[in-house]
Design brief:
It is a single chain. This protein has 92 residues and is of the alpha+beta class. The protein is built from 4 helices and 6 strands; from the N terminus they run αβββααβαββ. The chain starts with a helix and ends with a strand.
């Protein structure tokens, strides 16, 4: 048997939580070069501006380019975060 109070609360918390979207802040530097922006983040930002109903359905977080990206590490847990040059991967 499990502690149903904690698990029930966790299920409720997950059900009411919006999807989380992480976008890189523009004008970042990489190894002293730049400023840069993430083309994929810019495209998604444009889509959210064009389609505001979608923005209401997600929580958008703007994060710095530098790794490790602590906001994502905190959400996933260190054991599942693996920052690569080309993005963020989840370990199984």
């Amino acid at each position: 048997m499990y502690n149903s109070g904690i698990n029930l609360w966790r299920r409720w918390e997950v059900m009411i939580m919006k999807d989380q979207l992480f976008l890189l802040k523009p004008d970042f530097k990489d190894q002293g070069s730049g400023p840069f922006f993430c083309p994929e983040s810019a495209l998604v930002e444009g889509m959210l501006s064009f389609y505001p109903v979608l923005r209401e359905k997600v929580d958008v977080h703007y994060i710095n380019f530098e790794k490790p990206r602590q906001e994502i590490v905190s959400l996933l847990g260190e054991e599942k975060y693996w920052g690569k040059e080309s993005g963020v991967f989840l370990r199984k």
